[in-house]
Amino acid sequence: MSPVQFAWKLVVVARSDLRLSAGKTAVQVAHAAVSCALASKKRDPDTFREWYDEGQRKVVVKVPNLRALYELKAQAEDLGLVTSLIQDAGLTEIPAGTVTVLGIGPAKERDIDRVTGNLSLL
Amino acid sequence: MSPVQFAWKLVVVARSDLRLSAGKTAVQVAHAAVSCALASKKRDPDTFREWYDEGQRKVVVKVPNLRALYELKAQAEDLGLVTSLIQDAGLTEIPAGTVTVLGIGPAKERDIDRVTGNLSLL
Q1: Better-scored residue on pLDDT, B4 or A26
Q2: Percentage of chain A modeled with pLDDT above 70
Q3: In this complex, do A23 and B122 lie within 8 Å of one another by their Cβ atoms?
Q4: For chain A, what percentages of helix, strand and coil (3-state, to nearest 5) are there?
């Protein structure tokens, strides 16, 4: 079985220092994915459509802290990529307003990799 | 700090028997959330808007196996709720085509709770 080749992806970067549960992490990643998908659909429908029709590939990677998340956000915006920074409503596990994850894209894999290509999978 | 009250939610039901990693789980949940959000936006824009503007609440719960996932899908469809069943592309961890999660909603909390109200959080 050879792996499917994707040209497009959406990346969500998660803070590993928050030590969230699997369920809580999934909710934060889903917030970012929905926000990025909707923003992309509005601002750049062609990119959105290419990504979605290809199978809406998503990848979740990690950074050690909040500062790293902000640095990636600045880099992604410099490249003109869609970003979405998620703050938790704070109902469980962490204080309200905690910045948890950053969504980037969807975009061409080679463009997103300029920002997140060196990060480890969550 | 009193918890925020939500009237709307989107629920993603995950199979606990697949024992996916936190990252893999997050990707599957995000697939379901994006698919349900887009389907809802198209079929029932008012519901979508209410849910999104309220803060796009999401909850991740679990079932023990695939059969339970299909039973919930049937129940949700009987109530007229949006559903999205996700099959993994199978690049890692599990075989291609494995059904991993079921998204339900967004919808009024009381309607979704008729289907998923008894399930435990992931």
Answers
A1: A26
A2: 96
A3: yes
A4: 45, 25, 30
Alpha carbon distance A88, A99 (integer Å): 6
For the CA atoms of chain B, what is the radius of gyration?
14
Tell which residue, A90, A27, A38, has the closest CA to residue A60. A27
Instruction: Report ipTM (2 d.p.).
Output: 0.94
Q: Where are the domains of chain A?
A: 8-116
**What fold, for A8-116?**
Bit1 (3.40.1490)
Taking an 8 Å cut-off on Cβ atoms, the answer to whether A26 and B12 are in contact is yes
Per cent of chain A over pLDDT 90 is 87
Residues of B in contact with A89 (CB under 8 A): 4, 55, 57
> Do A18 and A100 contact (CB within 8 A), yes or no?
yes
This prediction's pTM: 0.95
Q: Please give, one letter per residue, the 3-state secondary structure of B55-90.
A: CCCEEEEEECCHHHHHHHHHHHHHCCCCEEEEECCC
Whole-angstrom Cα Rg for chain A: 14
